[in-house]
Design brief:
By secondary structure, the chain is an alpha/beta fold. It is about 30% helix and about 20% strand. The chain has 13 helices and 18 strands. The longest helix has 17 residues.
């Protein structure tokens, strides 16, 4: 197949290629004692989660040219024996796998390596009744958070970030994405100069002792010139400055590239773990927000540090309000309130990812059906509210007819995992902004 040309200059332009991950056996292995360490608030019913995710993928495919699964891409990236062995060596250095486990992995076919690294490898001789006497009693533990493809990597413009996760539970995911970008036949043409951020490679080489964290849920490409990045519970300011400096150096060579990075200073709390849990674009002129953090006059209005990338060194200044900061750089957005006007519903629906919309095209978004007040607010803003079932059952429905749509996803299981539609997607390419 043709090479994939990375191109994301917008949060709203028509989706071309996107990576997701169908929740596999890794979510079926979780017991209550593992939840907190694996960042979940509940255990999932895997069969229903897969059914819900399957409908989500079908909705994406109504607009996107390709909906890809990271497990397939990872398997294809490991087809060369040398690449497979190099990955196992790097995995050993990253997470400290014992030699006998590495030997077992080396003897597996690429597809089995990918399944084991994602879904987990139990000890062969472990009696079933003692299997969960110790948490994570696995040769290779499962990584259920890979469902949220947004976080371990990001595409910014024509380049990419191998992100660095804030928590132990997700440390393996960026290594998988690094190998996909560097070794998959459709992606490996992107050279090192296309990489904006990578703490995994220097960590494995022993060049740094501890990475600074940057997660994709905090990164939003708001125009071909402007990024917004949340400084949050999961993303550190030092990582944002590293990204900004790399983009500044690139702009010195290509003056048409990004010239502003808006760092949103967020509360360090789980309810607002990433910027996209409280703010997402829904159309060229609108955004979905958690009102207390963004609307003028709120005592909780978030400050923003504007980082100018257009000079020989980074220049910074801080002011209150992301919407005001965006207007100053030419992006004027009308806010739509997650949860509507009721403060109680705002809190409830923000917790269940009401603000985490994902754009398939300008004004065409997906969201969870449980967030009724948010859907009503979008309806008042001119969005036609449809269920995923209605969209998939109507072959004559054209989501690209220029009208605005909210496609509601039934997600009683997926929503338990504390991530919404944007969290579950890694766009590789969108149409020109």
């Amino acid at each position: 197949m043709d090479p994939i040309q990375l191109s994301v200059f917008s949060e709203t332009a028509r989706l071309r290629q996107v990576v997701v991950h169908d929740p596999g056996p890794e979510v079926d292995q979780m017991v209550p004692g593992m939840m907190e360490k694996l960042l979940f608030d509940d255990i999932l019913y895997g069969d229903l989660a897969r059914q819900e995710h399957g409908l989500f993928r079908q909705v994406l495919a109504k607009v996107a040219e390709e909906v890809l699964d990271i497990q397939d891409l990872f398997t294809e990236a490991l087809q060369e024996e040398g690449v497979k062995l190099a990955f196992i060596g790097d995995l050993k250095r990253l997470v400290g796998l014992p030699d006998d486990t590495c030997d077992s992995l080396r003897g597996l076919a690429p597809a089995d390596v990918a399944r084991g690294v994602i879904g987990g490898l139990p000890w062969d001789d472990m009696p079933s009744h003692t299997r969960w006497e110790q948490e994570f009693d696995y040769r290779v533990r499962p990584i259920p958070n890979l469902l949220f493809m947004r976080d371990p990597a990001s595409v910014i413009g024509t380049g990419y970030c191998v992100n660095s996760m804030a928590t132990w539970a997700r440390e393996r995911e960026p290594l998988i994405l690094s190998y996909v970008f560097r070794h998959h036949p459709r992606l490996r043409h992107h050279a090192d100069q296309d990489k904006w951020f990578d703490q995994v490679t220097p960590l494995i080489r022993g060049e740094i002792k501890a990475p600074v964290s940057l997660e994709g849920g905090d990164i939003q490409v708001l125009s071909p010139k402007v990024l917004a990045v949340g400084c949050s519970e999961r993303t550190q300011a030092d990582a944002i400055f590293l990204l900004a400096e790399r983009l500044r150096a690139h702009r010195a060579l290509d003056p048409s590239s990004f010239d502003q990075l808006l760092m949103v200073l967020m509360p360090k709390q789980r309810s607002a773990m990433h910027l996209d849990t409280i703010f997402t674009r829904t159309s060229d002129g609108e955004c979905l927000v958690y009102p207390p953090y963004f609307l003028k006059g709120s005592p909780e209005l978030l400050n923003v540090t504007r980082i100018d990338l257009s000079h020989a060194e980074l220049r910074m200044g801080t002011q209150p309000g992301l919407l005001k900061s965006l207007r100053a750089v030419g992006i004027d957005l009308e806010p739509i309130s997650c949860g509507g006007k009721d403060p109680i519903l705002q809190q409830r629906e923000q917790w269940t990812d009401g603000a985490n919309a994902f754009c398939l095209a300008p004004g065409v978004i997906t969201g969870y059906s449980r967030n009724l007040a948010t859907a009503e607010a979008l309806d008042r803003a001119g969005y036609r509210v449809l269920t995923a079932g209605q969209v998939l059952a109507d072959p004559g429905l054209n989501l690209l007819d220029g009208k605005k749509y909210l496609v509601q996803l039934e997600a009683s299981e997926l929503s338990r995992a504390r991530g919404g539609p944007r969290c579950m997607t890694l766009p590789l390419s969108r149409a020109d902004a």
